[in-house]
Amino acid sequence: MNHLPVTLYVTYHGDPQSRFDRDYYVSEHLPLVMKAWHQHGLLSAIAFFPAVRQAGTLAICECRFRDEKTMESALSSPEMPEVMADVARFTDITPARARAIDL
């Protein structure tokens, strides 16, 4: 198993009319993610938003984990349903995930 740090990117794609509450995402959802997954090896979670709302990527979250094993632990944890249930509170967009191994 790879012991290099792993970054999980969670992206939200839509258009300017798509519902995405940036304030809730930053003040409520990201702290929930940190609380739920820190014990599984999440080191940080940060959000990025385009300067102008337009069709395409509306938000990106970068979650950095100690390694692949800790990321998999978080994604299969008992806390995962709570994290996913919270998504409906800030958006109607289905998030997409991609992972990257830090070299």
UniProtKB/TrEMBL annotation:
Pfam families, A to Z: EthD (PF07110)
InterPro entries assigned to the protein according to its UniProt record, in alphabetical order: Dimeric_a/b-barrel, EthD_dom
Origin: domain of life: Bacteria
Ranges where the EthD domain occurs: 22-92
PANTHER family per record: BLR8190 PROTEIN
Protein name per UniProt: EthD family reductase
Species the sequence originates in: Erwinia aeris
